[in-house]
């Protein structure tokens, strides 16, 4: 086995969590080169992974929306780049038309994809020469690791390893005045995943009292207004200027604690080994949540709004260290922080 292509096109959280597959492959096949194919909106994530050898991307989502000639030319150029190497194995762990087309264009003789019943779009089945047996006995993130491992004949053992290294910021993202930074990801693309403003106000106030510099990033005008509503009640908190994807990643990397709803950047916090609380309201924590003992946890049942008290308990939990162990198992060691 000399070269493998992994395809996971979108979305941000999925692409982040799927990076653990790369470390598994490199452990199973020493010396193998692992390339990654995705939409260019999420290419930065794969480039942050020090174990990825080559990132292949194209503006697929942008072209679908705008149909610009420049984007069409970029897609054509990416096809030529895709076909520059002959892959021993292509692993489509996404399972929709666009990922299947990428797999098919590689010309590899060994192209894995899901069985039709497990595909996001059943027509994608045309691209595959072999099929994954999808694992449903674990959460989605471990399931990706186990599915690939089962197909290629190894075990995805131990905690997920992401090998993400965020490029350093030219200057501090936040002037925290020496305080540890707590990031609140209150925003989400879907209204049914939102936590009430009053709950965010309560949590922001609690974190301020614990000694954190509390900051709120945002991505749209509506999200900025919601952040301002929270800060109006907790004036010690800060609404940040609009940041790029890399800028928000640098913020997360500089933080001591992250709490947020089911969004990609909260998954990034978990992957970077941050103390993290993830709030689930309309999606399943069993399938999409994060757990690492005494460092990262998920709350909510995916059907109702978790109370503030449950969030405070979760914050206490991820800031505790078992006295008998002096630390906690998980993806990375617990990092002591100044706030208590």
UniProtKB/TrEMBL annotation:
Keyword Translocase: no
Record membrane topology: Peripheral membrane protein
Catalysis performed (reactions): an alpha-Kdo-(2->4)-alpha-Kdo-(2->6)-lipid A + ADP-L-glycero-beta-D-manno-heptose = an L-alpha-D-Hep-(1->5)-[alpha-Kdo-(2->4)]-alpha-Kdo-(2->6)-lipid A + ADP + H(+)
Documented EC number(s): 2.4.99.23
Short name of any one Pfam family annotated for the protein: Glyco_transf_9
Gene3D superfamilies per UniProt: Glycogen Phosphorylase B
Keywords: Cell inner membrane, Cell membrane, Glycosyltransferase, Lipopolysaccharide biosynthesis, Membrane, Transferase
Pathway it works in: Bacterial outer membrane biogenesis; LPS core biosynthesis
Localization of this protein: Cell inner membrane
Family: Belongs to the glycosyltransferase 9 family.
Name of the protein in its database record: Lipopolysaccharide heptosyltransferase 1
Biological source species: Paraburkholderia edwinii
């Amino acid at each position: 086995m000399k070269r493998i292509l992994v395809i996971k096109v979108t979305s941000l959280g999925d692409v982040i969590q799927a990076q653990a597959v790369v470390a598994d492959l490199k452990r199973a096949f020493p010396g193998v080169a692992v390339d990654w194919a995705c939409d260019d909106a999420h290419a930065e994530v794969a480039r942050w992974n020090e174990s990825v050898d080559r990132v292949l991307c194209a503006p697929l989502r942008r072209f679908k929306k705008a149909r610009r000639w420049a984007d069409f030319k970029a897609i054509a150029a990416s096809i030529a780049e895709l076909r520059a190497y002959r892959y021993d194995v292509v692993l489509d762990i996404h399972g929709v038309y666009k990922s299947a087309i990428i797999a098919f264009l590689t010309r590899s003789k060994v192209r894995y994809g899901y069985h039709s019943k497990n595909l996001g779009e059943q027509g994608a089945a045309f691209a595959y020469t072999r099929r994954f047996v999808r694992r449903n006995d674990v959460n989605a993130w471990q399931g990706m690791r186990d599915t690939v491992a089962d197909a290629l004949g190894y075990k995805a053992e131990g905690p997920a390893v992401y090998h993400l290294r965020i490029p350093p910021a030219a200057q501090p993202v936040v002037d925290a005045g020496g305080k540890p930074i707590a990031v609140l990801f209150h925003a989400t693309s879907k209204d049914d995943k939102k936590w009430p403003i009053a709950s965010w106000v309560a949590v922001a106030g609690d974190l301020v009292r614990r000694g954190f510099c509390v900051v709120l990033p945002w991505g749209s005008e509506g999200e900025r207004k919601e952040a301002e509503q929270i800060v109006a009640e907790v004036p010690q908190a800060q609404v940040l200027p609009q940041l790029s994807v890399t800028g928000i990643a640098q913020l997360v990397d500089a933080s001591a604690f992250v709490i947020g709803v089911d969004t990609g950047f909260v998954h990034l916090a978990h992957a970077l080994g941050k103390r993290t609380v993830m709030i689930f309201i309309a999606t399943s924590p069993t399938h999409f949540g994060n757990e690492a003992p005494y460092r990262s946890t998920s709350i909510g049942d995916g059907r109702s709004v978790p109370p503030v008290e449950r969030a405070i308990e979760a914050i206490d939990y991820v800031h505790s260290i078992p006295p008998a162990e002096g630390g906690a198992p998980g993806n990375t060691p617990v990092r002591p922080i100044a706030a208590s």
